């Protein structure tokens, strides 16, 4: 987690609440992976052994565990996560307002009216989104734990498949997360700054539209709004291009992994792979590793985007 976000959570008195929420939600993906892998192995083994009459019995058992697992996740989400999200929003805006009221006139004028409005709204939303919104820090942490535990299980079940999976995924992961997306916060911060300027130029139209019309200032104001809008779009496009590249490399790593597994399939059979059911089970854990790493990639891109709001909020506080 970004150190500025940690500092904000501690200053707002939400650090312990957040850690409790994180601990409760962390195991969900891995427990779901274990459930899915064992269910698939169980069904295939029963079919191979000609025990089709037990399929329905096993189905109801796995359905019960699935309902309990998702019920647990929904309960934690509704009772803890949503309340923490709302509390973070409220306390962060109050903290920003307190910072504004503690400044003298000269300090207030360091930022334009549009800049203050942007920081109190868009930047606060981005800061909170960094933690709890879909495909941000919370989901990255859950996916990371799933990746680690699924890797350990796959390592025990079949070292060959584990080695191939790691060999393919890690170089692409490093390239996506430490090379390609490193400039996203810079581009998004520039876009936020331009958005503040955009808000400043909207104010004359909203508050003094008649005066602007009398003095024939519409063209000047509209030209300036168009110029700033293009700046916002240009910076956002730069960030979106980097995000698209990370998605491309993530998909590419998955494709290469499956191709390599196809070529190595014969050598893997017989190495702790007793039958088709066992093969499907270990493949399921490999799929969980791939899914988790893709989720972490997407989350990292979104967190980089939201860091622009974190930086601008931290500047004021």
Task: Count every helix, treating DSSP H or I runs of 4 or more residues as helices.
Answer: 11
| Element pattern in H and E | HHHHHHHHHHH
User: Roughly how many Å apart are the termini?
Assistant: 19 Å
Shape: elongated
Mean model confidence by pLDDT: 81
- β-strand amount: under 5%
Poorly predicted runs of 5 or more residues: none
Task: Label this structure with key terms.
mainly alpha, 0% strand, 88% helix, 11 helices, single chain, 317 residues
Task: Kindly summarize this structure in a few lines.
With 317 residues, the protein is mainly alpha-helical. It has helices at 3-11, 15-25, 28-48, 55-101, 105-108, 113-132, 137-157, 159-180, 184-214, 218-268, 276-316.
């Amino acid at each position: 987690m970004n150190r500025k976000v940690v500092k904000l959570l501690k200053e707002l008195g939400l650090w312990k609440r957040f850690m409790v929420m994180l601990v409760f939600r962390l195991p969900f993906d891995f427990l779901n992976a274990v459930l899915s892998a064992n269910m698939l192995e169980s069904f295939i083994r029963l079919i191979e052994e000609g025990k089709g009459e037990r399929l329905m019995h096993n189905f109801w058992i796995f359905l019960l565990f699935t309902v309990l697992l998702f019920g647990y996740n929904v309960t934690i989400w509704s009772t803890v996560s949503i309340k923490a999200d709302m509390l973070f929003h409220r306390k962060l805006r109050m903290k920003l307002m307190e910072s504004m009221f503690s400044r003298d006139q000269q300090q207030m004028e360091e930022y334009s009216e549009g800049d203050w409005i942007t920081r109190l709204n868009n930047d606060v939303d981005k800061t909170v989104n960094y933690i709890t919104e879909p495909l941000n820090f919370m989901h990255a942490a859950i996916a990371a734990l799933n990746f680690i535990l699924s890797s350990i299980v796959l390592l025990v079940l079949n070292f060959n498949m584990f080695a191939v999976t790691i060999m393919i995924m890690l170089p692409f992961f490093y390239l996506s997360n430490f090379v390609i997306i490193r400039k996203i916060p810079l581009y998004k911060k520039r876009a936020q700054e331009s958005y503040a300027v955009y808000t400043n130029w909207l104010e004359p139209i909203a508050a003094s539209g008649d005066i602007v019309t009398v003095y024939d200032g519409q063209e000047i104001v509209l030209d300036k709004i168009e110029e700033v809008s293009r700046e916002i779009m240009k910076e956002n496009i730069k960030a979106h291009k980097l995000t698209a590249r990370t998605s491309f490399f993530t998909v590419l790593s998955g494709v290469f992994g499956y191709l390599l597994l196809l070529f190595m399939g014969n050598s893997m059979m017989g190495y702790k792979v007793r039958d088709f059911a066992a093969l499907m089970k270990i493949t399921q854990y490999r799929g969980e590793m791939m899914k988790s790493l893709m989720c972490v990639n997407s989350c990292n891109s979104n967190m980089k985007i939201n860091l622009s709001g974190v930086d601008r909020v931290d500047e004021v506080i």
